[in-house]
Specification:
Mean pLDDT: 78
Strand content: 15-25%
Helix content: 25-40%
Low-confidence stretches: 340-406
Shape: globular
Structural class: alpha+beta
Number of helices: 18
Radius of gyration: 30 Å
Number of strands: 23
Distance between the termini: 87 Å
């Protein structure tokens, strides 16, 4: 077949494959145009999930009659004029592709009137064929009507989901745009039924709650931090408490300069901020608003404009993570135990559960409940000093293995896996493995802040069998492995020799081969590492789990005292690095009620 120049209508249909994925894509492009035009009221109407009709009505600045044909021409736009404009884009649209692409795969009508004009004008396009202009009423603003989407591209139309599914995506799109534009009112109707009615407001908090649901207000933590050194970056929004985490990644809403995005770097930073507080299979509820100098970000990455590139990717990642982390750290996130008979339909904690006391549970500690283990004592004491910075003072007159008060509160170990104590608010049940895992994580991270971890060479290297891809990743992972105190090298096309491991990991008798193998598998799973800092957090999770005491290990009194002290001295002590709670509180009021005292 000879080389030929494609006709314009085919070029536009090809472009539509990237710009117009489904009805929600049409809604996104058209509503963004309305916002660019200065609209303060936007009405979105859809029928058949948007496949039969999408109509957007706004009160924006309008388009002059003479420019209507240009509005549907490919690569025609009022947003940029020179290549310098691309370095600092302030508008949603700028590529000059959206209207031409939409009009090429639909029955399209554009009606507009500028303020003060005696009349408006109307333009129709069917499958890319433009019809002559007609007069229209002098109503300021613009109405765009898109009917029978993909009528001339049946292969694309048959891939659309059900009307309900497409309507849901349209709703999500409108909510995303409304979230970062509170001063604009949005109304969404589907088949004549009103789905959204968001009044304009000068209070961003009100708009956020209108979108996320006012009932979530007690579960949302507001934050705002500024980072002048990163192009005047402002990080603000709402971070949901772990109990309202969702199974869908759509629970995280990210906006940059008013533009909804789904950037991998920012998404990873949000998840890192919740590491250890939310089960990895669930997603925290977060509304994140970023404001940044447009010169510090490139939005011209993909026609859909949902992907961006930051000039300081590592800086943005760190700022987002720290802003959310500090907010979560300031909140009391210890879950409370509510008996099943009294539990509300919505579970307060959605992740894996630690065992709880049942109604009427009673026990007596056996003489062997606490047994000294000399091989563990010294390591645990050293760990306690490392994590807290000071050694725990020995109470006057207390024997080495004598149960004493921890912070003036009594404690007891039960079932060789749980430590029961109290605080000012009630009885606290501690999962020893989960809490020690969190403490080991803190210890590893504290060491890493001072430099690479100390390394212990193995007398005989451990050889593990891995895939060719995993072996190839060793070179890419070299900086990370060096920080962790791991020495590993290729030992053939499908094997790796582990020659040294971190001293802290070795002292806990952790399986070095399994650790390095898991690390390589995780690297392949992620494809590439977002950043060294992010990778360190993920790998240290694995190290902490392998190094922590296990459920079933009996602890001595000094070990228990040191462990309980960790609850007050380390960050995020309420959950292990994997999101399980380290402790659960039975409130004093609940105990009094159950025993008939209230």
């Amino acid at each position: 077949m000879p080389i030929r120049v494609l006709p314009p209508e085919l070029v536009n249909q090809i472009a539509a494959g990237e710009v117009v994925e489904r009805p929600a894509s049409v809604v996104k492009e058209l509503v963004e145009n309305s916002i660019d035009a200065g609209a303060r009221t936007i009405l979105i109407e859809v029928e058949g999930g948007g496949a039969e009709l999408v109509r957007i009505t706004d009160d924006g600045g309008g388009i002059p009659e003479s420019e209507l044909p240009l509005a549907v021409a490919a690569h025609a736009t009022s947003k940029v004029a020179t290549s310098d404009d691309l370095a600092a884009i302030h508008t949603f649209g700028f590529r000059g592709e959206a209207l031409a692409s939409i009009a090429s795969v639909s029955r399209f009508k554009l009606q507009s009137c500028v303020r003060g004009a005696p009349s408006g004008a109307e333009l129709e396009v069917e499958g890319g064929a433009i019809r002559p202009l007609r007069p229209a009423p002098a109503r300021p603003g613009t109405v765009v009507e898109v009917r029978t989407l993909f009528f001339n591209v049946p292969a694309r139309r048959k891939f659309l989901k059900s009307d309900a599914a497409e309507t849901a995506r349209v709703t999500e799109t409108v909510e995303a745009l409304a979230l970062s534009h509170p001063t604009v009112s949005f109304e969404l109707r589907s088949n004549g039924r009103r789905l959204l009615d968001l009044a304009a407001t000068a209070e961003p908090t009100k708009r956020t709650l209108d979108v996320l649901g006012a009932e979530l207000a007690p579960e949302l933590l507001e934050f705002e931090e500024r980072f002048p050194e990163l192009g005047g970056l402002v990080v603000r929004g709402f971070a949901g408490k772990p109990g309202i985490a969702r199974p869908s990644s759509r629970a995280i809403r990210i906006h940059l300069n008013g533009r909804p995005i789904m950037d991998r770097t920012v998404l990873h930073a949000v998840r890192e901020a919740y590491r250890g507080l939310v089960d990895p299979v669930r997603t925290p509820t977060v509304a994140l608003i970023l404001e940044l100098d447009p010169r510090e970000v490139d939005v011209n990455v993909h026609p859909a404009k949902s992907e961006v590139r930051f000039r300081s990717q590592q800086g943005i990642h760190s700022a987002v993570r720290k802003a959310i982390e500090r907010t979560l750290r300031a909140a009391n996130l210890v879950p409370s135990f509510v008996p099943d008979a009294m539990r509300a339909p919505a579970e307060p904690y959605a992740g894996p559960r630690a065992p709880l006391f049942g109604s009427g549970f009673a026990t007596q500690r056996s003489e062997g409940a606490i047994r000294a283990r000399s091989d563990f004592d010294s390591d645990f004491s050293a760990f306690a000093a490392l994590a807290t910075g000071v050694a725990e003072p020995k109470p006057d007159g207390a024997a080495a293995d004598e149960p004493v008060l921890a912070g003036e509160f009594p404690y007891i170990q039960l079932l060789n896996g749980f430590v029961v104590t109290e605080d000012a608010d009630g009885v606290v049940i501690v999962d020893q493995h989960a809490l020690h895992e969190r403490a080991m994580f803190a210890a590893f991270m504290a060491r890493l802040e001072k430099g690479a971890l100390e390394s212990q060479r193995l007398l005989v290297p451990i050889v593990i069998e891995k895939s060719a891809r995993e072996v190839d990743l060793l070179a890419e992972l070299a900086p990370l492995l060096a920080r962790l105190g791991v020495e590993a090298r290729a030992f053939g096309p499908r094997s790796v020799a582990v020659e040294a491991v971190p001293t802290l990991l070795h002292s806990r008798n952790a399986d070095a081969g399994a650790f390095v193998g898991d690390l390589l598998e995780k690297a392949v799973e992620h494809g590439s590492l977002v950043s060294l800092e992010a990778a360190l957090h993920e790998v240290v999770d694995m190290m902490a789990c392998k190094a922590a005491v296990k459920a079933g290990d009996s602890l001595t009194a000094p070990e228990i005292r040191s462990l309980l002290a960790m609850r007050e001295s380390i960050e995020r002590s309420t959950a292990c690095p994997h999101g399980r709670p380290t402790s659960i509180r039975i409130a004093r009021g609940e105990l009094e009620r159950r025993f008939g005292r209230s």
